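Q: Is it fine to ask for two folds in a single conversation?
A: Yes, each is treated on its own. Send the first.
Q: Here.
A: Result:
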Amino acid sequence: MAGERNTNQPAVPGAARALDNFKYEIATEMGVTLGGDRTSRENGRVGGEMTKRMIQLAEQQLSGGAVIPPGGGMGRIR
């Protein structure tokens, strides 16, 4: 609803900064400028792409194919 604040908290303490950097990296790759003056569709595309890449990373880890480098490196998963 309008005016509500986001109370989501990262599951891993200290991950907020890495997730924020990841968000802006994805936005830059997609040519999207994030912000309150943008449509939900524009901002949501970035979140959807983040989710897609994090799922790919998790699948690779579960299959034994990936190691997370220090600092995340999530933006380099394709």
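Q: Second one now.
A: Result:
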Amino acid sequence: MSWMAWTWQTAAFFSAIGLALAAMTWAEIRWPTKVRQGFLPMPTTRGDRFFISLLGSAAVHVAWLAATDAPVGWASMLCIGYAGAVMRYG
């Protein structure tokens, strides 16, 4: 894998996604999800809301990088709040 430019930040990002997926799998086994309607325009499960939060977070990061020179950490903090809102109220 020497052809790839891996950094500790990249490894931490993919590790966090892997841990989140493992936690979601454990939660699904422990407490099976129920379809519910929140502020999103369609009924969703826990996995649906997680996927939507990942897609939205990617869009926020891309827009942040395109629109500002501010540190990306601010976008990440914004995305944590966004993901929390989607998971809780979506």
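Q: Anything structural to flag on that second result?
A: Two points. Helices lie at 8-30, 46-67, 72-89. The mean pLDDT is 91.
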